Amino acid sequence: MAEAEQQRSPAGQRVWETACEMFYREGIHSAGVAEIAERSGVGKPTIYRNFASKDGLALAYVNAKAVSPRAWLESARAACSDDPPAQLRQVIADIADQISEPGFRGCPLVNASVEFPDRDHPVRAAVEARKAEYLDLFTELVTPLPVRDPESLAYMLQMLVEGASVTTQIYSPEKSAAALKDAADRVIASYMER
Amino acid sequence: MAEAEQQRSPAGQRVWETACEMFYREGIHSAGVAEIAERSGVGKPTIYRNFASKDGLALAYVNAKAVSPRAWLESARAACSDDPPAQLRQVIADIADQISEPGFRGCPLVNASVEFPDRDHPVRAAVEARKAEYLDLFTELVTPLPVRDPESLAYMLQMLVEGASVTTQIYSPEKSAAALKDAADRVIASYMER
DNA sequence: ATCGCTGGGTACCGATCGGTACGCAGGGGA
DNA sequence: TCCCCTGCGTACCGATCGGTACCCAGCGAT
């Protein structure tokens, strides 16, 4: 969740923070530029001096909200060194905690891709690029495990995470978090024994 | 996917079909009323004579696109009578086929709930009601199985299905369909043996 | 004191949004 | 033949959208 910082004026920084919050809470299309400006205490031109367009702002939002796979990987390796299965469970448990937090409204990237169905749109392209990195994270975590088809397992875990993220919004965060950890354990165990 | 039909004028019926297709392909917010009218070959007032508002049209869309759990259940029971595990696998396989179809762009209900974050909005409420029925379908399919906690298993399967639906759009439909069936088998097996 | 430059807000733009007032064409009953 | 009623499209409404032309305040340097 590390944000790719770039130099911005103080007013531009406030715009950035407001926009991220509103994009996530209300959706990108529903968050109007005028309201972002108002809530940031700036005029609209300030937004366009720091960002090329609303789409540009949305693009920055998507790229910033993406997970930072490398950082997450390092952190998991630091917490559970030399124990790949524990590292994997650690990451899954972290994700389960994240989706349980109040105010969680699904993965920002998935939501953005729903709002931008056109696959040629830059925002959509950014989502796919970032999500590919996400899948790589799982692949790296799974590779050290003694399983026959690590890539399939990684894909399955990714699928579980996305499913938990979605069901959290529609059903229950507690159930989703618990089911995510439980299901991941079962799938991993199943892969380990054959 | 059975559509709750109601009496509509022929022109209204064309509007309905066009709207469903556009809502799904482009998203509800992105599909303008004027464009729906034009593509249906009618004027805008025709839309408002058949539907109370755009939100009303969206509400009808959501309710129509919901699965019909009872029908699906009957069909699975007919195909694999007296074999509950096979019934369950049948439903999962049907879903895997569905998400593999070209033009699949995720679950219409999930997409709608992303577009309507406000939980008090009628469209959002309808999504949650319909999705609860969906979960009930899995619960009914799982209950006959000799497992200790059927509800947990049902929730997990629901989560897997939602995950497959999401990853289909971002990664690969083929991989998602295969991973869904594989993961479901593994989770079910895991539940059956303990 | 005066200048120019930087960084900000006011007020406005055309386009498009969802929604509607109104008028017209056509068919059945008298 | 006249009438009314139903069902539809044209043309328009105010609101809001993303985006911009313009102006002004505050600053350091001369």
Straight-line N-to-C gap of chain A? 35 Å
Of all protein chain pairs, which has the greatest interface, and how many residues does each chain bring to it? A-B, 46 and 45 residues
CATH-defined fold name of the largest domain in chain A: Tetracycline Repressor, domain 2
CATH superfamily of the largest domain in chain A: Tetracycline Repressor, domain 2
> What is the strand content of chain A?
under 5%
Tell me the number of structural domains of chain A.
2
Please, how many helices of chain A?
10
pLDDT average of chain A, as an integer?
Answer: 91
What's the shape of chain A? elongated
Helix content of chain A: over 70%
Protein name (chains A, B): TetR/AcrR family transcriptional regulator
Pfam family, one (chains A, B): TetR_N
Domain HTH tetR-type (chains A, B): 9-69
Organism (chains A, B): Streptomyces iconiensis
What does the model show?
2 copies of one chain form a homodimer. The first copy, chain A, is mainly α. Chain A folds into 2 domains: 10-61, Homeodomain-like (Arc Repressor Mutant, subunit A); 66-193, Tetracycline Repressor, domain 2 (Orthogonal Bundle). Chain A has 10 helices and no strands. Chain A has helices at residues 10-26, 33-40, 44-50, 54-65, 69-79, 84-100, 108-115, 122-142, 150-170, 173-193. In chain A, helix 7 runs antiparallel to helix 8 (122-142) and helix 8 crosses helix 9 (150-170). The longest helix of chain A is centred in the last third of the chain and has 21 residues, at 122-142. Chain A starts with 9 loop residues before the first helix and ends with a helix. Mean pLDDT of chain A is 91; it is low at 1-5. Chains A and B meet through helix 7, helix 8, helix 9 and helix 10 of A and helix 7, helix 8, helix 9 and helix 10 of B. The structure holds a DNA duplex (30 and 30 nucleotides).
